Each structure stands twice: as C-alpha cells, then as structure tokens.
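User: If you would, consider this record:
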Amino acid sequence: MIRSAQIILFAAQALFWSCAIIGITVTSLVGEALASDPALATLPIGLLLGGSLLSVHPLSLFMQRHGRRVGFLIGSGAGVVGALVAALAVHRASFPLFCLGAALIGTYQASAMFYRFAAVDSAPPNRAGRAAALVLAGGVVAALLGPTIAVWSRDLMAIPFMGAYLTTAVVAATGFLVLLAAPEGRVPGNAVGGWAAAKALLARPKVRAALMVTASGHGMMILVMTATPLAMAFCAFDLSQSAQVIQWHVLGMFLPGFISGRLVDKLGAGRVAVIGGTVLLVSVGVALSGVALGHFLASSLLLGAGWNLMMIAGTTLLGQAHAPEERGNAQGLMELANGLVAATASFASGALLAGAGWSLINMGVAPVLVLVALGAWFQLFGAGRQGLTEAAGKP
C-alpha cells in the first residue's frame, strides 16, 4: 500500500513537472510577445507564483482537515482550467487573459509542492528519505520529456505557443486522473490550525532557520531561471537551445535527490544548506564568465543542484521542529515563504533583465545568500537541541 502510494505520487510529480517545464520554456516568451512593455514579459510567471502564494497555505490547512487526495485534485483541476484559459489568451492575443490563466496554474503548482510531504507522511520514519527520493525522481522523467514536449507543442496549432498550453491542459488532466487513486492522507488526531498556531511555530528558531534556507534557495533559483530564456533569446539562441538548458536545469533540480537526503542524515541539515548555497554561488560564477551555450547549460545545472540541496535541508529541519498535528500549518508556512520570495523574484526578474542586464541579476544572488546564511546560522545556534520536544510544549 505504501509503495503504491509513492508510485502514484511519482507519476503525479512527473506530470506536474512536465507542465512546469513547458511553462518555464515558453511563458516568458509569450509574455514578451503579448505585453505592451518588455519589462512586463515575466509578469505572467510572477502571477503564476502569486496564484501559488495565495493558494498554498489555505490548501495546506484544507488538506490537513480533509485529506491530501481532495487537495491534490483541486490543484490539478485548476491546472487544467488555467492552461485552457492561457491557450484562449494566446488565440485572442490577450495579455490580461494570459495573466489570469497563469495565476490559475499557480494553484496547481501550490498543490504539487506537497507531493514530497505526502511521500514522507506515507512512509515509516526509517524509509522517509527513500520515499522522498522516489517522488523526486518523477522530476527526472519530466526533465527528459518536458523540453521535447515544449518544442514539439509550440507549433502544434496554427498560432504559435497555443498548442503548448493545450498540451499542458492534457497533461494536467492526466495528473488529475492519476491522483484519483492517491491515498486519502488524513492527519491522525486533532489538527492544529489558525494564525495563533502559525505564530507559535514562527517563535521556534529551527522553524525560522528552515524557512530561511528553503525560501532563499527557491527565490534565487526563480530569479535567475525566469530570466534565462529571455537572456538566451537576447543572445540569439533559439527555442530548442533554451529547452535544452531548461532540461539540464531540471535534471540538476532532481537528480541530487537520490543522495541529498542521505547527505542530510550524515552531515546534518545545516552543513548541507551551506553546501547548497556554495553550489548556487558557483553557478553564478559560471553565468558571469560568459554567454555561450555551455555557460548557460552548466550554470543552470548547478543552479538546480543548489536548489535541491537547500530544499531538502530546509524541509528536514522543518520536520524536526513540529508535531504531527501541526503539519498543515508548518508545511503551509514553508510553502508560503517559498512562494512569497519566488513571486517577488519573478516580478523583479523581467524588469532587472530589461533595465540592468543578465550580469546584474546573477551578481545580486551572492549578497542575499550570504545574509541568509548568517541569519540561518544565528537561528540554528539559538535553537540548540530544540525539536519535537519543544513542538509539543515540553521543557
């Protein structure tokens, strides 16, 4: 039963990230074509992340009370509707309608961010890392197939890019059907919710450190990755080359999942977070060293790997700092923080690229990571041995 649940989540992860890769590859290009101002090219991606931001905490609390399955179905259903709206927007050349479709797809993204939590919840403690790794492996499948689908579907219809969003709708609908077989995923015992409970969680240094680690890694990755297809277009690379770079990036995001959990168990979440931040800095160095295809490929691969290490480290820290009945609030807070930072980064990305250029975007990553590393270290130092004992309110 546990294994079958993980396989279902593996398939759902592969289908979601296939949709996401199509979006990463073409959305900023469509935005540039439809927007009246080039600085607004990444606004649809920002609104997608904004839709995710608005959905993520309510979805987390909803799933705690009503189960994972129904929350996942709501998310994938929103993905189908959003993709159809985006296709209609491309047909009508309507930028506002395209932004609406992107925001609806954000709810799909919000629900999919809980697949890794659901995998861990369904496994015994001694197999939690392997369960998460199996689900993350779905992203590898998407990395191999998604860019090819994006390039193939671009000209599927007479109007460029309309076919990409119709294909996204079909893939999301397939995800909906797969998730009908997902386990219900209710939380045993009395669920704790509300802003008072969230405030109590944020009072814990380990929770704050976990949020800082994942939000910074996620935000920096979104800032650079959102700008990458546009930067490549400015450098005269075609869509197939951009899709190849996205493929390398997503492989970097998910291939380390097979070892990052074991690294956290062996070295500790704090050390792995530092390693992840270092990998992100190396990716910045590669990006600043040139604008040949090889530079984009290598920097994007490293960008994804750094994100993975920081995400796994932060998720592990969070799991050590809350009780089961606090799951909905704790996980919702993490994804809310990730979404808030990512939405800000994506909104800023297009304007920074248009006004300041590719180099400045990458140069801005370094000081942010240094400040976050110092803040997270301070929180962890103050946390001491706090964990589930503190979460339960015990001395």
